[in-house]
Specification:
Blueprint (H helix, E strand, L loop, with lengths): L7 H6 L2 H39 L8 E7 L1 H11 L11 E5 L3 E2 L8 E7 L8 E4 L5 E4 H7 L7 H4 L4 E5 L14 H4 L13 E3 L3 H5 L3 H4 L3 E6 L9 H24 L7 E3 L3 H43 L1 H9 L4 H29 L1 H4 L7 H35 L5 H12 L2 H17 L3 E3 L6 E3 L1 H27 L10 H12 L1 H40 L3 E5 L1 H4 L14 E9 L2 E6 L4 H4 L8 H10 L8 E6 L6 E3 L5 E8 L10 E5 L11 E6 L3 H10 L4 E6 L7 H34 L1 H13 L4 H34 L19 H27 L3 H6 L1
Parallel strand pairs: 4-8, 6-7, 15-19, 16-18
Antiparallel strand pairs: 1-9, 1-10, 2-4, 2-9, 3-4, 5-7, 11-12, 13-20, 13-21, 14-15, 14-20, 16-19, 17-18
């Protein structure tokens, strides 16, 4: 006798929809498992990249720094540190500086320091001269001391001045930023504490300078920059390992030369790497529960595919059983048909997770080890899919073909999972999660702030979605159980739809459960991730006052009618700041404030514009003012400023936040010298702002940028966690669509028979179409309504508490999710129409005789 198992592959091709559903289900399950692994690793990579961007490029590698050295010691340190084996780092960039001192140039003695740095002259902007056989003097010192090309300081002991260069300003370019404390003069420090650098062209010239110029208080720095900045956590850890080995080697050389302790080795990227690892672990902890839940949904989908296969092969299975095949043999037949699509689906899930990593994850590059772990996860999924399929088919075959009448005990055990109030269990878990959410779910370390998130706090929105999904499925099941009391024969389309739903209450409840979970997690993930992005932008903008800000010379800014350089007038404004006992006073120009200030936060731009028109003084005192926060209102005196009268109040304002303060018009102050400090607020980036001020010769200090004002990692940690929630929501949505189609396919013969008989009894084709659309539309509407309500509700409840910087305003607020909700409803409608079309087609093509015989 020919063994029928040999024809399994040919039989599989006769049910292409089953193969497609099996492949898709395995793909989704594999994608969930492997994407969770890759996403957590990518979060570590994104955190590493962000941390690297916050440090100077030269500070990423090993560093040696020493102060109070003699010139001979500094020269010896530089020579010994130039090792041939740099452990993968580039050659060290050495710099040597003298102490800050007065240098005599033609009888004028400006404060300055002499220095040398490898390649320094290549990164300076020459204003005059340019010869590399003498000293390069910054413009500020040259103008103050009247230094010209060819001048020789210290009575001719110094080399001639061969170039005047543009002063290096703050923020420094990347090549200079590691040396900023030594090359940037600080006007707020005491006289002689800091000064600009007069550069020697090479190490030999610097070493030949007289002792009176260099002195015995020399500073030396050496940086070993990496060839490329680390992009993954593994690369960062490798960088630290190689950097430590290099420092050990150089330290041993210095110790052998008797220079122990003259320089301090450092690896500044150690702490940032630890923080990146914490971020990876936090994200992994946050996404693992939902990934596990989604995996369970995928396994349930595989079990459903196996049950659907049993139904389609029922006649053949009974024939094989009658010929002596047992449940295990029948399970083997199922595996022969479904193994290939399931293994292919698992492989495609791994490929999709890797290919789409840049779409759903914060970085496109994971650790190399994560790829191997993801591949192992895909293999585990494939084996688990085969196991579930085999077990389900074997149990189903045993129960249908071999099992006798079931007793009360067996029936109770089968009904037990339905009797357990799972929604009460998840609701009980949501209570401590809510308490954790409302009770400071974050802890921030003082050293390079890093976020430690309570996993329970992040789990609350998901537990809320799961509870509502379970409750919706249970209520729907109870309603369908009681639907036999409804008599809708006057509307046959609706009545038949209701009866079909009641006949398949279990599968329908499962589809609604998955769909509600999908839509709820999609809305919650999208909303909370968007809230974190907006909160970071708003808090940074409110803290700085604008996209970029610098403090400028008060003598220049305080001149009546003073204007900014032409290149900044369309995007910047001048703002004065004075501290008083009543609060901080902001002196603004109403005509230009909206051009530079950050007005996208809690302050409505239209409201501010309307108030600015009222700030223009009408002559005399008191002058109009706007009270900010809880500042006193009415007529009052603000220290040395004129008497003011408040005309309105605002809850917050850029730079002040919700702190007490007042807003005054610049034209209302008769004496602008009373203002403590002046700042330029701009919507341009900081480099453009400072470049324009440098070009105009306007001195500035204290540069701030909204992009770096706050440590973004705490916000990114939450954003990346819920970004994966969004991705899983999309996967679950696809799974629910597949489940709906699978449910239609499972009931294809029953629906085709009942529909065909109803058509022969006079049911019109239009009524048949309406009936199936009502049936499937009710399922989709229930899922969309419950999912959107719980998703939006979860975002509304949790957004304000998921605030990594609660001391800064504004708090995170729920975004407008109308577009998401409308798009979800539209896609759900399309899926319903597609599934309805499949159901109607099965009715119209049905052969009643064949259906009755089967």
């Amino acid at each position: 006798m020919q063994i029928p198992w040999r024809r399994a592959y040919r039989a599989a091709r006769s049910s292409p929809l089953t193969l497609v559903v099996a492949t898709t289900t395995a793909l989704l399950l594999s994608f969930v498992v492997t994407a969770a692994i890759l996403h957590a690793s990518a979060a570590g990579s994104a955190a590493t990249t962000y941390q690297a961007s916050q440090l100077c490029p030269h500070s990423l590698g090993p560093t040696l720094e020493g102060t109070h050295l003699t010139a001979a010691q500094a020269d010896q340190v530089v020579r010994l540190a130039n090792t041939t084996d740099t452990h993968g780092f580039t050659a060290p960039v050495a710099a040597v500086y003298s102490r800050v001192q007065r240098l005599d140039f033609n009888g004028v003695t400006p404060w300055a320091r002499l220095g040398y740095r490898d390649g320094a002259l290549d990164h300076l902007t020459v204003l005059a001269g340019g010869g590399r056989d003498g000293l390069w003097v910054p413009r500020s010192i040259a103008e103050d001391a009247g230094i010209h090309l060819g001048d020789r300081g210290l009575g001719g002991q110094l080399p001639p001045v061969t170039a005047i260069y543009q002063d290096i300003s703050n923020p420094t370019p990347d090549w200079w930023c590691s040396e900023a404390p030594r090359i940037l003069p600080n006007v707020l420090a005491g006289e002689g504490a800091t000064a600009a650098v007069i550069w020697a062209p090479d190490a030999a010239t610097f070493a030949a300078l007289p002792t009176s110029a260099i002195g015995v208080d020399t500073t030396v720095t050496l940086h070993y920059p990496p060839a490329t900045a680390p992009a993954t956590l593994q690369q960062a850890q490798d960088l630290l390992s190689r950097g430590g080995a290099l420092l050990d080697e150089v330290s041993a050389r210095l110790d052998a030369a008797g220079l122990r302790g003259v320089v301090s080795p450092a690896l500044y990227f150690t702490r940032p790497t630890e923080v990146a690892a914490q971020v990876r672990d936090s994200v992994a902890t946050a996404i693992t529960p939902l990934a596990a839940l989604s995996a369970l949904v995928g396994l349930a989908g595989l079990a459903t595919v196996a049950l659907q296969w049993c139904q389609r092969r029922h006649t053949e299975l009974r024939l094989l059983w009658s010929r002596g095949a047992g449940p295990l043999a029948l399970a083997g037949r199922a595996l022969l048909e479904l193994a290939v699509p399931q293994v292919v689906g698992a492989a495609l899930g791994l490929l999709a997770a890797r290919a789409l990593l840049g779409v759903y994850a914060p970085a496109p590059l994971p650790n190399a080890g994560a790829l191997a772990l993801a591949a192992a996860g895909a293999l585990a999924v494939a084996l688990l899919a085969l196991l579930v399929t085999g077990v389900v088919v074997a149990l189903r075959s045993h129960r249908v073909l071999q099992d006798g009448p079931r007793g009360a005990r067996t029936s109770f055990l089968r009904r037990l999972p339905r009797l357990i109030p799972w929604e009460l269990l998840t609701a009980a878990l949501a209570v401590p999660a809510w308490i954790s959410l409302t009770d400071l779910p974050f802890s921030v370390s003082a050293d390079r702030p890093s976020l430690r998130v309570e996993p329970a706090a992040l789990a609350f929105p998901l537990l809320l979605v799961l509870t509502v999904a379970l409750l919706t499925a249970r209520l729907l099941r109870l309603a369908l159980r009681a639907s036999h009391r409804a008599a809708l024969w006057s509307r046959p389309a609706a009545h038949l739809a209701l009866r079909r739903l009641a006949a398949a209450a279990g599968p329908v409840a499962g589809v609604v459960l998955v769909a509600t979970l999908a839509i709820g997690t999609l809305a919650a993930g999208t909303g909370l991730a968007s809230a974190q992005r907006t909160a970071l932008d708003s808090k940074s903008g409110m803290l700085v006052g604008a996209r970029s800000s610098v403090q400028v010379d008060a003598t220049w800014a305080g001149q009546p009618g003073q204007q900014l350089p032409e290149s900044l007038r369309a995007s910047s404004t001048l703002v004065g700041v004075s501290k008083t006992s009543s609060g901080t006073v902001l002196v603004v120009d109403p005509a230009t404030l909206t051009r530079g200030a950050y007005l996208d936060g809690p302050v409505d731009a239209a409201t501010v514009t309307g108030l600015l028109d009222q700030l223009t003084p009408t002559g005399g005192a008191p002058i109009p003012a706007v009270a900010i926060g809880a500042a006193a209102t009415g007529e009052l005196r603000l220290a040395a400023l004129p008497t003011v009268r408040t005309i309105a109040t605002l809850p917050a304002f850029p730079r002040l936040g919700t702190a007490r303060g007042y807003l005054l018009a610049r034209a209302g102050l008769p004496d602008l010298t009373q203002v403590d400090t002046w700042h330029v607020w701009s919507t341009t980036d900081l480099t453009t702002l400072t470049g324009a001020l440098d070009a105009a010769g306007i001195q500035h200090i204290t540069a701030q940028s909204a992009a770096s004002a706050l440590d973004g990692l705490p916000f990114f940690t939450i954003q990346w966690s819920f970004g994966f929630v969004t991705a899983l929501g999309a996967v679950l949505a696809l799974a629910s669509a597949v489940a709906l189609v699978l449910t239609v396919e499972v009931r294809r013969r029953q629906a085709a028979l009942s529909g065909a008989l109803a058509s022969r009894m006079g049911l019109r084709p239009a009524a048949l179409v309406r009936s199936h659309l009502l049936e499937l539309g009710a399922v989709g509407a229930a899922a969309v309504l419950a999912g959107c309500l719980v998703g939006v509700g979860g975002v509304t409840l949790a957004a304000g508490y998921l605030d990594p910087a609660p001391w800064l305003s504004p708090r995170p607020t729920p975004p407008n999710l109308f577009t998401l909700v409308a798009g979800t409803a539209l896609v759900a409608g399309l899926v319903v129409v597609l599934a309805g079309g499949i159901a109607v087609r099965s009715v119209r093509t049905a052969q009643i005789g064949e259906l009755i015989r089967d």
